Amino acid sequence: MKLAAVILNYNNADECIEAVKRIEDYSVINAVIVVDNASSDNSRERLERFFDSLNGRQQKDGCSEDDNFRKFMLVCSDKNGGYGAGNNLGVKYAYEVLGAEYVIISNPDVSFSEECAWRLVEALSEDDEAAVASAMMDDGSKGRQQTAWMMRGWFFELLNSGPLSRRLFKKYLNYDSEYFEGKDKVYVGAVHGSLLCVDADKFVSCGGYDENIFLYCEENVLGFKMKNAGYKTVLITDLSYKHEGSSTIKRSMSAMTQRQRIRQSSERYYYRNYLKAGVLKMAFTHVFQAIVLLETCIAQTLGKI
């Protein structure tokens, strides 16, 4: 069993370095890959120096009999293609170059234990149908949360995209709590993209993330692709990881309205290309999104978000 971890960086070397430090001694992880998504600052140079230092220490401590072995690697993209493209690059490198069977995809603002890594891999290795595995997320403020959802049709997915409608129709948009009761793991439609483990062969064979999406909706696309290929997504309910909460995104796009516009563009792409929404549905989508964007602008002006 060979496991790699992929962490995506964009102008965020400090957080990526800390993320690598948290997992550098995990014996279950054979390789740590940071993908630099064409950072515009000095991230690449800083990460290269940091990895040279780590790899030199590994060899000095006799962690590998192979003098050419490098556990820590920087893979550089020639353009910032977004979350999906960057992680696809990392997973393909782990699978095709390093021969990894499983790959953990982690945001730099995520903390997870070695036990978490072991159990995610275990969930995939023991289930031939499973292609993606994740755990509950703890964001530090609300505690442990159920970060998985069913694959929804166009209408319910649209309702879920609006702050008010999401609250009003919560009962119809999420799994009932009884679905998780008394179970240590369950099959779900999609899981949060901040931390997940994939079967590398199944991920690559399904095409990975859709690189036409720059940001947002990646989880739905991956869940959709896996379901169509006959694979399943697993949520381990008695296991959790910590997530700071989109720090990289907020750093590069501080305005909520800017993030909302990008999110809505990705949602429209998902509705058209995966949920096959026709002309009338897409016209209604534009009206609905305009109302949501107006609400966002007002809330931002009033300092509510």
Describe the fold and architecture.
With 305 residues, the protein is an alpha/beta fold. The protein has a domain at 3-151 and 189-252: Spore Coat Polysaccharide Biosynthesis Protein SpsA, Chain A (Alpha-Beta Complex), CATH 3.90.550.10. It has 12 helices and 12 strands. Strands 1, 2, 3, 4, 5, 6, 7, 9, 11 and 12 form a 10-stranded mixed beta sheet that branches. A two-stranded antiparallel sheet has the order 8-10. β6 (130-138) and β7 (144-145) form a beta hairpin. The protein starts with a strand and ends with a helix. Mean pLDDT is 90; it is low at 62-68.
What's the structural blueprint in terms of helices and strands?
Blueprint: E1 3-9, H1 13-23, E2 31-36, H2 43-60, E3 72-76, H3 82-97, E4 102-106, E5 110-111, H4 114-125, E6 130-138, E7 144-145, E8 148-149, H5 154-160, H6 163-168, H7 170-173, E9 185-188, E10 190-191, E11 195-199, H8 200-205, H9 218-228, E12 232-243, H10 247-252, H11 256-273, H12 279-301
Parallel strand pairs: 1-2, 1-4, 2-3, 6-12
Antiparallel strand pairs: 4-11, 5-12, 6-7, 6-11, 8-10, 9-12
Helix pairs in contact: 1-2, 11-12
The low-confidence parts are 62-68
Rg from alpha-carbon coordinates: 20 Å
Major sheet size, sense and barrel closure: 10 strands, mixed
Question: What is the CATH topology of one domain?
Answer: Spore Coat Polysaccharide Biosynthesis Protein SpsA, Chain A
* N- to C-terminal distance: 45 Å
| Helical proportion, percent range | 40-55%
Task: Give the CA-based shape.
Answer: globular
How many individual β-strands? 12
Strand content: 15-25%
CATH superfamily annotation of one domain: Spore Coat Polysaccharide Biosynthesis Protein SpsA, Chain A
User: What is the C-level CATH assignment of one domain?
Assistant: Alpha Beta
